[in-house]
Amino acid sequence: MQVAELIEKELILIGATAIEDKLQEGVPNCIQTLSRAGIKIWVLTGDKIETAINIAYACNLLNNEMKQFIISSETDAIREVEERGDQTEIARFMKEEVKKQLKQFLDEAPQYFCSPSGPKLALVIDGKCLMYALEPSLRIMLLTLSLNCSSVVCCRVSPLQKAQVTSLVKKGARKITLSIGDGANDVSMIQAAHIGIGISGLEGMQAVMASDFAIAQFRFLEDLLLVHGRWSYIRLCKVVMYFFYKNLAFTLTQFWFTFGTGFSGQRFYDDWFQSLYNVIFTALPVVIVGLFDQDISSSLSKKYPELYKEGVRNMFFNRRIVAIWACFAVYQSLVFFYFVSLSSSTSRDSDGKMFGLWDVSTMAFTCVVVTVNLRLLMMCNSITRWHYISVGGSIIVWFVFIFVYSGIMTRFDRNDNMFWVIYVLMSTSYFYVTLLLVPVAALLGDFLYLGVQRWFFPYDYQIVQESHKDDADSINTPDSQETKEHLTPDEARSNAISQLPKEVSKHSGFAFDSPGYESFFATQFGKYVPPKAWDVARRASMKSKSKPK
């Protein structure tokens, strides 16, 4: 500063340049929507405290109705100590000030929780104070106060402090953390969180290279979390529970069989049945569910962000859900074994002989394959042609396999246990009656439970499904036309783009919003989408570059 005072004298200002550092399009709406979804958003920035607060207001993180707790090093008392120049005294004094303010705010916060109409809380802290607040003796106080606040803004923080704050929430509060940034100074924060999101912008690709997911703009975080993230959670829960269910139902039939054999070790199913059950006969349908299942559309997922809270509360994967699936698996295994074994004891084949062990086990395995595949259709929220193809194909593959396997015997076979079994079974009416009754009896409990649950104890997404089940018939009603007239230009543009056929998006080459190409595709289908100014300028510059010299 002293050198600058000596040099910068009697200068003539010729001009000045500046970089406009403004929010991207849709950031305030995105943050507001994520807040409605129950997601707490913290801002960790290197800007000074005034700029950080203004950004928080612009992002709808702060408002005038909030009670703001501000911990700043820009106070008169701290300035007096800093003017003395004693670093030891400065560190001791600032630590005491931070501790005093944290304790004061912690004592003050509960009074706002007592009244239901009390204001929300917000914490603003700068980098110098944060350095002392992150010390082991004050860390718990900072975390407790922060978790009680709706918004937290940390300004003038270093990349290391960003990572420390993220780790504090991750390990101290045991919460799932997501960090999003667009610059090299955000890399440590992105790597410290459970999930790292990098924005590919003008500040380089360092954040993208260090992240788990990359997006083009901040507003795409809404689609990533509320749409794709939520779908992924529901699909994953269904896939895990279905694997647990189908293997438990299959294995328990062999367990019940051991009671009749005195635990001698006699196997109930053929070895090839056990080997191919998970690999072929029940493999493809669950993959289709994991890829295509959707409870509600993407537009409804964003319209009702509160549905995201079902995943936060882990409503689809908990002990109660596991117990329900286990109970139905036990019930179905009892039906598979005892229904088939008891009914076969009074039945005869076409030659008048009683059915043997391998006849009964083949009949039971056929019922298992058919039932578990049909049960998968009952758990789907949306059924496409791929569901029918996978389920029907898996059942057909089983019959093709057993026709070939039981119809051919070579000299390498250890015995002729399975030879001609399926042909003997299918020559009797017992096979067809059992194949019809066993799946119905096994799935009756599931059907009743799903009906009662949806009718009397519905999930939030099921209520949304019922509320919008007729939306497909009312897209072009006068009411919807009136609603479109009240949309903002950006909302009208997005709405027009969303009505374009889905197939055209793959021609643009962009992962999300296809810059400059929506207008072209819209005109092909008689729709008008107003182009953005920078799109027009970009295409004009590209044309000028392409002219031959």
From TrEMBL:
Per its record, the protein catalyses: ATP + H2O + phospholipidSide 1 = ADP + phosphate + phospholipidSide 2
Regarding the membrane, this protein is recorded as:
Multi-pass membrane protein
Region: Disordered, residue numbers:
471-491
Give TM segment ranges: 239-260, 272-292, 322-343, 355-374, 386-408, 420-444
Q: Which residues bind ATP?
A: 45-47, 156, 162, 185-186
Q: Which intervals carry biased composition (Basic and acidic residues)?
A: 481-491
Q: Which UniProt keywords apply?
A: ATP-binding, Magnesium, Membrane, Metal-binding, Nucleotide-binding, Translocase, Transmembrane, Transmembrane helix, Transport
Name of protein: Phospholipid-transporting ATPase
Classification from the root reads: Eukaryota, Viridiplantae, Streptophyta, Embryophyta, Tracheophyta
